[in-house]
């Protein structure tokens, strides 16, 4: 099995464990970081935000 095929298989296996059924995209995590760095999150204190497609909920 080539390294590309191995990487694809690993990604498919991980995606199968996530309720959303797919891997997260960098832009999705970046949006959360941008929110937390913005004034919009000024009243957010001590929260855990899981950017994991719901995996933390299972």
Topology:
Blueprint: H1 3-16, H2 26-37
Protein name: SDR family oxidoreductase
Organism: Conexibacter stalactiti
Pfam families: adh_short_C2
Structure description:
The protein is an all-alpha fold and 58 residues long. The chain has one domain (1-41). Helices cover 45% and strands 0% of the residues. It contains two helices and no strands. The protein is elongated. The model has no long low-confidence stretch (mean pLDDT 94).
Feature tags:
0% strand; SDR_fam; 58 residues; SDR family oxidoreductase
| Count of domains | 1
Helix content: 40-55%
Helix count from the secondary structure assignment:
2
Query: What is the global morphology?
Result: elongated
Low-pLDDT residue intervals, each spanning 5 or more residues: none
Residues in β-strands, percent: under 5%
Structural class by SSE content: mainly alpha
SSE series: HH
Kindly, what is the distance between the CA atoms of the first and last residues, rounded to a whole number of angstroms? 31 Å
The number of distinct β-strands equals: 0
Query: Roughly what is the average pLDDT, rounded to an integer?
Result: 94
Oligomer: single chain
Task: Indicate the radius of gyration in whole angstroms.
Answer: 15 Å
| Largest sheet descriptor | none
